[in-house]
Give the backbone structure.
Amino acid sequence: MSDSDFKPKGVMWLFIILVLTGFAWAVLYFSRNNPSLANNGQAFSGRQTNTRQPRTYTVFYGLGVFSPTNIRIHVGDSVRFQNDGSTSMRIISDLTNGVLDLAGFDSVGEIPPKSVFTYTFSQTGIFGYHSARNLNEEGTVIVRP
């Protein structure tokens, strides 16, 4: 057996154990210094607090696709539709039983390239929308309480 055949297998395992130990220590250390991380996995109380601030989410439009196609938000949150395409676009609310899913949503008109349209959702529900030019270019906003 020559020196070139020698492979330090024990040293590799020791290195792996040290890396895993360091990772476990980092998780414990950072979760102790960040209470929001320390509560993950624990049951929440039945009471909800109204401390959540409304958020704005962005849906990008380009190359005939809305991204993300489906988005989940809460009542009071806004969705910002950003036109990353090279032509103007118009977003239209879907119809359910002949009634618009989002009354007032269609009043924006054309959204020029590199422009945005923001809509704030004030009620719960599942709201579909699509491009005025192509019904296959569509998306859904799911609004939770």
